[in-house]
Specification:
Number of strands: 11
Shape: elongated
Structural class: alpha/beta
Helix content: 40-55%
Order of helices and strands: EHEHEHEHEHEEEEHHHEE
Radius of gyration: 20 Å
Largest sheet: 5 strands, parallel
Length: 241
């Protein structure tokens, strides 16, 4: 994680860490309706990787996760970003866990079951105290699976690892991420990335797609897909071909 919460202009980003898909979806909806952008993670390792890429303004963190303990995730988040607001989710009978979490630096907690309105109110209070409640509504961060692109700083990370791209490679990847899972033709890519339809442009697109694949996909589950006769699309590694 680079910088402090709120150091990047943009829509408020809330990292949601919980291994219950239904609860994560409900929290994501509540965060979206509050005008913020949710970044869900189902386990501790995924949360830490995602946090390094998207630089969240606040975190909703379950105390019980399938890999790392929630308190371990809290400790690592605190090491990398000491002022990051963290709202812990705990079981009603886990008094010792709540005390330990607060002692380790959690800013607040809610007990399960809870109301979504309570979570949003507590997050709003934490963001206000951190000075990020009024962050601008534009959004320079694109996230798809473990791939994170930040337009403002022109940085790209996959699985927490920085990836160096040329200016046009970055523009091409940004175009694909702005239209996830949508097939873009070579003509559309040429028009948006190069503002051109010159002859031979199709070969240029092929070269840059190949370069992106080498940097983004090499040694990892592929994200950039060729749709024969139509063009190219980007999908999370979990999506089917």
């Amino acid at each position: 994680m680079s910088g402090t919460p709120g150091s990047r202009n943009g829509r408020v980003r809330v990292l949601i860490v919980d291994d219950e898909p239904a609860l994560t979806e409900l929290l994501s909806v509540a965060v979206t309706e509050a005008g913020w952008r949710p970044y869900p993670a189902a386990d501790g390792h995924s949360a830490l990787r995602l946090a390094r890429g998207c630089a969240p303004h606040a975190v909703v963190l379950d105390g019980m996760l399938p890999d790392l303990d929630g308190l371990q995730v809290l400790r690592r988040l605190r090491c990398e970003s000491p002022k990051l607001p963290v709202l812990m989710l705990t079981a009603r009978d886990a008094l010792e866990r709540r005390i330990e979490g607060l002692a380790m630096g959690a800013d607040d907690y809610v007990t399960k079951p809870f109301s979504l309105e309570e979570v949003v109110l507590r997050l709003r209070g934490l963001l206000r105290r951190a000075g990020t409640a009024g962050a601008r509504a534009d959004d320079s961060v694109r996230v798809l699976g473990d791939l994170v692109l930040t337009e403002e700083t022109r940085e790209v990370h996959r699985d927490g690892t920085p990836i160096g791209l040329t200016a046009k490679e970055f523009d091409l990847l940004a175009l694909l991420l702005n239209h996830p899972r949508q097939v873009l033709s070579k003509a559309q890519i040429l028009e948006h990335v190069w503002s051109s339809t010159f002859d031979g442009g199709g070969n240029l697109v092929e070269v840059y797609i190949s370069n992106l694949r080498r940097k983004i996909d090499k040694g990892r589950a592929p994200m950039i897909r060729t749709v024969r006769g139509l063009g190219y699309a980007i999908r999370s590694a979990e999506d089917g071909r």
